[in-house]
Amino acid sequence: MFLSYIRTGCRKAASFLFAAVIVCCGAGSGRTTVYAASLEELELEQEAQKALPVESNDIDNWPAGPVTSAQSAILMNVDTGAVLYAKNIHKKSFPASTTKILTCLIAMEQGNLDDTVTFSNEAVFSVPTDGSNMGMDVGESITLEQCLYGILVGSANEVANAVGEHIAGSIDGFVDLMNERAAELGCTDSHFMNTNGLHDDNHYTSAYDLALISSAFFRNDMLCKIGNTARYEFTATATQPDDFILKNKHRMITGEVVYDGVLGGKTGYTDDSRQTLVTCAERNGMRLVCVVFREETPNQFTDTMELFDYGFNNFQIMNIAENEKKYQLEPSGFLQTGNDIFGSSKPILSIDTKSSVIVPNTTTFDNLESTIDYNISGGNRIAQIKYSYHDTYVGSAYLELAADSTSPYEFDTNPNSTDVSVERIEEPGPEKDPAQANTIFINVKTVLICILVVAAVIILLFVLRALAINNQNAKRRQNRVKRKQRRRDRLRSELDDFDF
Predict the structure, then answer these.
(1) pLDDT value at position 57?
(2) Which residues are catalytic?
């Protein structure tokens, strides 16, 4: 406890001394005037950024988005990846401490919360002492779960380094993992140089890439819980001797800025990045993530709330399986799976029931365009249907082969096999119901071949059985004839013994 007070006192004294030096230097060299001018320049920059175009406003029949002072901003649906609001979303920008979202995502995916993380000399002293930290010393250790709280609540730079070393063996090795994971998530505008977001000209991302990373982050319940924590208390242990409390700087998490449905987020700031903010919120089953870059306080919070209001008020979620009429699976014949091959409980192909699209309130599902992609592998998926509205992606669903472990029939349902094909036939005749046009018919060669083989075997068995029965009957008839003939011969022989 005493050490904690000393650390806190030293940090406060250092901050006061630093501020005093700045004031003195400013008074003696005209720096005060320069500082005022820089504030004026920042205000002018914010006004200029308000005039930047919002690309999503150019989509036909798309709800007009709000004006923001961010240099780039995005509103993305967490579950579909659909972009509802787009402003300069592919501009490469400095993410500052929002970098730590990716750090914690990888730590959660590759580590265990009960792991013990020990702080090395490099982890502690490779970051500036005046940056965000929680005062960990070399040789001290805490659990990985506590590290995640330290990173997401306290934005502790040395903790991000220690986690990187724990997961990958070195900070550089972990940075390699960061770039690999970002690429896996579909990021094309990003390059990371460190675990914490301290400024480096070669450390950058875009609003779109960070939204992809954040969507993966907020799909993890534990990360949501930690990332939505307003304050976290550390208590002294044998390996960490201090009691102290970390407080989150995200005002929508602490309640200083009230907004219903917040699931978590992360702040970020450097002189080069200015204010950056990532936030996730949910209403009526719709989860949205908002990223804003290069703002000035408190605009990062007010703009984020306006973007959330825009999303929740103007868009709706639609379940694809419940609304899809164009792609229908032929339910008749043998193309079903279940315990009874002649009358099963479900079709062999179906649209996954969890997928959805997010569309403006003013449109319907029938207004969406769709394409089908067969270059899908993995699991029981054989194709993907992608939906768009005026050439803007709004969601997707998978066509899946039904899996039934209780079926006694062993059919090859490997989705990678070329024996399974799905053909889309577009021949709506004059007598057809328009809603039934563009029907998908299923041709499962392996199933049909198996059925034919089984039928042939059964027929062959019937034929062989019939032949065997006929052969046995013929032998019986021959035996009866022979017996009758022998009796006649005996009778004749006996009659020949008498003289009539």
Answers:
(1) 97
(2) 97, 100, 155
